[in-house]
Amino acid sequence: MVSIIIPTLNEEDYLPLLLESIKKQDFKDYQVIVADAGSKDTTREIAKSYGCNVVEGGLPSKGRNNGAKVASGDLLFFLDADTVLPRDFLKKTLREFNDRKIDIASFCFDSYSKNKFFHLMLDFYNNVIIALGKKLPYSAIGILVKNQLFETLNGYNEDLKLSEDHDLARRAVHYGKFGTIRSSHILVSDRRFKQDGWFQTTIKYFLSELHVAFIGPVTSDIFNYKFNHYKDEKIENRK
């Protein structure tokens, strides 16, 4: 079984799109756990209407850890709430994960945004993480990991303010095999770039990577990361 764990905060506009895409998967041996950080909208009601197990969340690391505590699956799939899974995603992903004997995996991305520049950014990102994967594991937005390995790592570091996904992957390589899934892409949103600014957001992520590489994990609010402040963001047409 795969336990899909989704941290949320006021995601009534985006969460149904993700849950519907999960529902349409051919692979059915999964459970969905929503770790909600006190949403004021209908996020929890939506999750329950799709049969999700709803637990108390917090910032992403805490929510993911809380979700993992009640997970029944041998595999944990951590996924952001504003994503969408293409058809056959789970089936293709699990086939590659098992065939390559991976213990923890990250993913390449595509987008449901119509912004061509964002698609070019994602293409560049995909090429970089594949090229650097063996020496510098890079993971974000979606991580598939064996439950046993996750427990060995004591889960996500809840003291980190940013790049907690990267930290998990880079600790994991000391205990298991890391790989980037190429057979299927996660469809992502560009809302953070649109609201916070394309240049500002890109620079923030670049600087955070330098911080992790040369100083260490980001444990302060130096980059002013916010979990979710996109409630008024309008959703574009999707693929």
Overview in brief:
The chain is an alpha/beta fold. The chain has helices at residues 15-23, 43-49, 60-69, 89-99, 116-132, 147-152, 164-172, 191-196, 198-214, and strands at 2-8, 30-36, 53-56, 75-79, 104-111, 142-146, 178-188. Helix content is 38%, strand content 20%.
- Could you give me the name of the CATH homologous superfamily? Spore Coat Polysaccharide Biosynthesis Protein SpsA, Chain A
Largest sheet: 7 strands, mixed
Shape verdict: globular
Q: Whole-number average pLDDT? A: 88
Kindly state the percentage of residues in helix. 25-40%
CATH architecture name: Alpha-Beta Complex
CATH class: Alpha Beta
Strand content: 15-25%
Would you give the CATH topology? Spore Coat Polysaccharide Biosynthesis Protein SpsA, Chain A
Oligomer: single chain
Count of the domains: 1
Poorly predicted parts: 232-239
> Could you give the order of the helices and strands?
EHEHEHEHEHEHHEHH
Counting DSSP E segments of at least 2 residues, the number of strands comes to: 7
CA-based gyration radius: 17 Å
Q: Report the end-to-end length measured between terminal Cα atoms.
A: 28 Å
